[in-house]
Specification:
Blueprint lengths: L14 H17 L3 H14 L4 H13 L3 H10 L6 H13 L3 H23 L5 H21 L3
Helix pairs in contact: 1-2, 1-3, 2-3, 3-4, 3-5, 4-5, 5-6
Length: 152
């Protein structure tokens, strides 16, 4: 028996390196308006890295920029990955474009409502959100300006 033929071993790819290469290429495709290529590559990226939020975001962004707001919304909601403010804003834009205004408003005001509920619970307040917004706005903006505008 002879010596087995030498085979070149395929290069070992680090998952982080592969992911960063995918993400970089997708962003480059988006920057030159090659949306179909961006979508195709982003779909491959999400297939290999389904839990990576940036990959999911870039797939949704690729769909959105190609004019497919419904597809972008489906990507974001299917993966249940609306976790960052950037994703929330993209999901709200998609909802707005498909005329789901209530969903868009809910997404945009989500963090504000959470803050309100925390303050309401901690201070045991019995007001509504409008009262809280007006009260905090006065404290944050009007009172500091009052000292600047007062006439001595």
């Amino acid at each position: 028996m002879g010596v087995p033929p030498s085979h070149k071993m395929p290069p070992v790819h680090n998952d982080a390196t592969t992911l960063s290469t995918y993400l970089s290429l997708i962003q480059q495709y988006l920057s030159v308006f090659m949306f179909d290529n961006a979508i195709w590559l982003a779909e491959r990226c999400v297939a290999e890295h389904p839990t990576d939020s940036e990959a999911v975001y870039l797939l949704a962004l690729s769909h959105y920029r190609s004019g497919a707001a419904k597809a972008a919304r489906v990507v974001l909601e299917r993966t249940n990955s609306i976790t960052t403010p950037t994703m929330q804003f993209l999901a709200a834009q998609c909802a707005f474009e498909i005329k789901d205004y209530i969903r868009a408003e809910t997404l945009l005001l989500k963090s504000c409502r959470a803050t309100y509920e925390q303050i309401k619970l901690s201070l045991d307040r019995n007001g509504n959100m409008d009262d809280w917004i007006v009260e905090t706005s006065v404290r944050q903006f009007v009172e500091p300006m009052g000292s600047c505008l007062s006439i001595d």
